[in-house]
Specification:
There is one protein chain. It is globular and about 35 Å long. The protein is 45% helix and 6% strand. The protein contains 3 helices and 2 strands, in the order H-E-E-H-H. Strand 1 and strand 2 form a beta hairpin. The longest helix is centred in the last third of the chain and has 20 residues. By secondary structure, it is mainly alpha-helical. This is DUF1289 domain-containing protein. It comes from Seohaeicola nanhaiensis. Pfam families: DUF1289 (PF06945).
Length: 66
């Protein structure tokens, strides 16, 4: 389900429906976002969303190194 912001060209949520916060890493094991990023996602501007999205691959890769 897309919200109006996603339909208006904002980057969509990276949620993969694997919602499990990793306490040691400080972010979700499914999408890589912090609790605060998940909570604020719908109110973030496109630039803020893009900035977060660019960090997610590195965060998730760091889980596989442990």
């Amino acid at each position: 389900m897309n919200d109006q912001r996603e339909q208006s060209g904002l980057p969509p949520s990276p949620c993969r429906r694997i919602c499990r916060q990793n306490a040691e890493a400080g972010f979700c094991e499914g999408c890589g976002r912090t609790v605060l990023e998940v909570f604020r996602w719908t109110s973030l501007a496109a630039a803020e969303r893009s900035s977060i999205l660019s960090q997610l691959p590195g965060r998730l890769a760091s889980l596989n190194k442990a």
